[in-house]
Design brief:
It is a single chain. By secondary structure, the protein is α/β, with parallel strands linked by helices. The protein contains 7 helices and 10 strands. Helices cover 34% and strands 24% of the residues. The strands form 2 sheets. The protein has a 6-stranded mixed β-sheet with strand order 6-7-8-3-9-10, sandwiched between helices. Helix 2 runs parallel beside helix 4, helix 3 crosses helix 4 and helix 4 packs parallel to helix 5. Bound molecules: adenosine-5'-diphosphate (2 copies). One adenosine-5'-diphosphate (ADP) binds next to strand 6. One adenosine-5'-diphosphate binds next to helix 1. GO terms for molecular function: ABC-type transporter activity; ATP binding; ATP hydrolysis activity.
């Protein structure tokens, strides 16, 4: 686990108005920060810069107190969960979960990999589904597989980009409970983008409001949503 420090982070695509315009935020080790704001305000860009899928134009990004601006995504030890799950259709649930472990060739032996798959499956109630392919799963189950893949990495932090927005209301409620449980159990530093106020209220330690690339407000969910 690790803290995440954003210091005056700027992102310019081409020579237009900056998509992210001087964002500074200290996220404590183990903290769960919700990122909200209107469409196009820079939420995805910010997540993608943290995970390393997008270059930072200027500013300092630190993970666990170390500057990582120039580090490749694979060297940052973060796990991102996307809205569209990004599962491999030809692989079983077990192999989808194990995928990041098999990328790190030789780090774990087969027995250790199997152990991790089963631990993640227990946490996310996927035991019965390990041999199935993503096409045969419900939306909520697919989302859990995507989270399983994040868990087995033992990442320093999780980055979620609207992970529940494609689910119906009932599943969304179940998954919210699932994520809260996972957070209590793992205590991993998390940045979570959502439009859903209930998710922000129930999951977030703090809510950061982004507007036109700038942080407008950072507050506890209670202070933010109960103000007049
Ligand atoms: P959000 O996730 O809050 O909807 P984004 O981070 O996707 O916002 O986008 C922020 C701004 O950056 C928008 O104005 C968007 O059009 C622009 N943008 C995002 N990605 C690119 C890109 N690859 N090239 C050019 N502009 C982009
Ligand atoms: P390559 O560099 O082989 O073209 P990618 O650009 O897809 O592959 O990814 C490079 C590395 O970035 C991967 O090894 C992985 O560790 C990391 N990575 C890619 N996507 C994510 C993500 N969603 N979350 C965390 N790390 C990622």
């Amino acid at each position: 686990m690790a803290s995440i420090t954003l210091d005056n982070i700027v992102k310019k695509y081409g020579d237009g108005f900056p998509a992210v315009n001087g964002v500074s935020l200290d996220i404590a080790d183990g903290e769960f920060v919700i990122l909200v704001g209107p469409s196009g305000c820079g939420k995805s860009t910010l997540l993608r810069m943290i995970v390393g899928l997008e270059d930072i134009t200027s500013g300092d990004l630190q993970i666990g107190g170390k500057r990582v601006n120039e580090k490749a995504p694979r060297d940052r030890n973060l796990a991102m969960v996307f809205q569209n799950y990004a599962l491999y259709p030809h692989l079983t649930v077990a192999e989808n979960i194990a995928f990041p472990l098999r990328l790190d060739k030789g780090k774990l032996n087969e027995e250790q990999i199997q152990e991790k798959i089963h631990l993640a499956a227990d946490t996310l109630e996927l035991r019965e589904h390990l041999d199935r392919k993503p096409a045969n799963l419900s939306g909520g189950q697919r989302q859990r597989v995507a989270m399983g893949r994040a868990i087995v990495r033992e990442a320093d932090a999780f980055l979620f980009d609207e992970p529940l927005s494609n689910l119906d209301a009932k599943l969304r409620g179940q998954m919210r409970t699932e994520i809260a449980r996972m957070q209590r159990r793992l205590g991993t530093t998390t940045v979570y983008v959502t439009h859903d106020q209930t998710e922000a209220m129930t999951l977030g330690d703090r809510v950061a409001v982004l507007r036109k690339g700038e942080l407008q407000q950072v507050a506890s969910p209670r202070a933010l949503y109960e103000q007049p």
